[in-house]
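In this notebook, the sequence line spells out the residues, with the fold written below as integer tokens. This is how one looks.
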Amino acid sequence: MENTVKHLLSNLTLVALVLTSAAAFAQDPNYTLSVTDASGASGDMVMSSVMLDSTAGDDNSGWSYGVRQDSTVGTLVDAVLGATALTVNGGDEPDFVNINQFPDEGYNVGVVINLFGAEVLAPGAGYELSVATYELTGSGSAPLTIAEDLGSPPVAVVIVVAGASIPPTIENGTLEVIAGVATGFHYTVTAPATLSQGTGFDAEFTLSNDEATAPVTQGFSIGLAHDNTVLDADLPVAIGELAALDGGGGPDFFGATDTGDGVTLGCVYSFLGAETLTFDAVGSAILTIPYSSADPTFVGTTDLDFLNTLGTPPVDNVVVGGQSIDPVSFTGTTVEFTAGAVLASFETGDTNQDAKKNVADPVYLLNFLFAGGPDLDCPASGDSDGDGSLDTDDAILMLENYFTGGAPLADPFGACGTRAGVEAADCTFVGCP
């Protein structure tokens, strides 16, 4: 009985220790109190814990501390025991717990694990002593500080070991309001990141919306700029949901223009409002824009960017959803052209390289294929359909184009140019630079 009374009196003294501010002593590196960071958007509820690392220390019987926040960033909503403290007393809460809350300032805690000394917290790491919930109400960031000046009287920052108050090492945290990304429509263009010099490609335009309830759209317009010393653009082509409108007939109005330094497009799904589209956060690819090389020798990077200054008058990047809606973000893309084999400059159809396209060219090709005629110095010039092989189909395509107005031959046709995969080493063409 005498020992029990002594333990009780000793631990009541601990209560006094943890509730009373003590003189400043050097922080003990064997005990570390740290505050975890908390962040979110303005209006969010966020949580921050106070953790204890006593791996290099001894058994402790209790603790006390305060945690101060800046009310310009957030206010305290609640402070409770952490996961470790909830079961530290042989599976139960501590015998003595005192938590005082000051919404605009912070909170303080005083704990004695067991009034009779029957339970202690062994050395270890990752001990969660308390958890605070804050409402983020301001902007920016501010420290979450382990403090000795909260309350009246203020509470000391100590770990109780063998009846002594040990000032722990302190690691403060941060309470931060993160500026939220605006929700709404997003314009994105994608293209291959890396290509060999002189190679053409298709870019894709994706429209997305990350609002909780996305507006129904009736149309849109875009202006997409490029460097015309590096790229030539063809007009946009509807794909996906856009091409599927009106049973596959596409939108009622699809007005595309090549401005020289970019492409513009105005699109109305239905003049009578019969067709609409809704876009989610993932978005839908609804356009392709084909590009070819304006300079086959170019090596480096070039950009595709959305601009509101293209065309006369300029075309704005907007979505029509009952009204004109400005997208909240625009994501362009960068394409890198790397040095590679030099592509040949030639013209499809001029197989005999006399700078003319007439009946002599298919005859020249047929003589080569079937009568042991001279080789084609540039075999690709005879590949009328661009399938990578020479056969009678190529000669027939030439005849149909030259005499009956048949389909055009594979590029480059009508002028000197290049074709992907046709290298200068495999094609000598006198009439093209």
Q: What stands out?
A: The chain has three domains: 2-177, 185-338, 360-426. The mean pLDDT is 90. Residues 2-19 form the longest helix (18 residues). The longest strand covers residues 127-136.
